[in-house]
Amino acid sequence: MATAETRESVSQGSPTDQPRRISRSSESRLSAPLARKRKRAALLFLLPACTMFCIYVIYPIISSIVLSFFNWDGMSDKVFVGLANYSELLHSDTFYVALKNNVLWLVLFLLAPPIGLAFALYLNQSVTGMRLIKSLFFSPFVLSGVVVGLVFSWFYDPAFGLLKLFVGHGIPVLGDEHYATFGVIAAALWPQIPFCMLLYLTNLTSINPEIIEAGRMEGATGWSLLWHVVLPQLRPATFLSVVLTIIGALRSFDLIAVMTGGGPFDSSTVLAYFMYDQAIKYFRFGYSAAIAVVLFLIMLVFIVYQLRRLLHADR
User: Fold this and answer.
1) Average pLDDT, integer, range 229-249
2) Considering its fold, how many domains does the chain have in total?
3) Rounded to two decimals, what is the model's pTM?
């Protein structure tokens, strides 16, 4: 008899458990409208940014893809030509020269992250006058591309440039089809290296010093400490510097426009300048849009590859 009453009391629950169940059910009923309000507020906050992104990013991309199937000079009616612009592009010698130069830009431009890391490790010290040295290292990044192009054009000048003082005789770097691209890339690396340095410096200040000390206690020194302890903590900075360097290499335009104009004989042109040349000089907007689509697809491949690597590394 007592056992049955005990089972009945257990099945019904103690009097103190019933208010708890009632309070939990009431909290769940109250939390559901609150969660909906929070989601609605989050969507409202995201709406302006998403609208701007669609207007200034998504819409131009779609418009460029659509325009690449037309022949249009900007004034007359558009004429649908299908894949004719892409076919002409694949049979153009200038396109392959520009593509080769873009690959060269990409390979040499990827020197900026490791050099920037070396400078960041050197500047990440607490010594007298380090702030002044940091500002001197970072100063090239604040200069505009036009100023950098003019400075290096004077530097390469075979008559009175500083390069003549180092070599002993004038070298027409920007006038030689074999050297022009390398000269422009060297000028572009001057501000790109401080940019990567700044990314690494910012990340170095956020590293927990206890992790470094733990690595030293485990016997890690020198390169082993850098490779196994420091670099894993700098993964976000490495991702940003590599991705932004790749984008900067593929969309290189301003220095080429200032220093060589794509010459001599289109030897230093890249896809971005080739696109500008066809649109502004020859009013071939459909053909220029086809070049832009190819450049966008190349950028997309590199960015997706880097994102996948970052996601796999975080798992």
Assistant:
1) 86
2) 2
3) 0.79
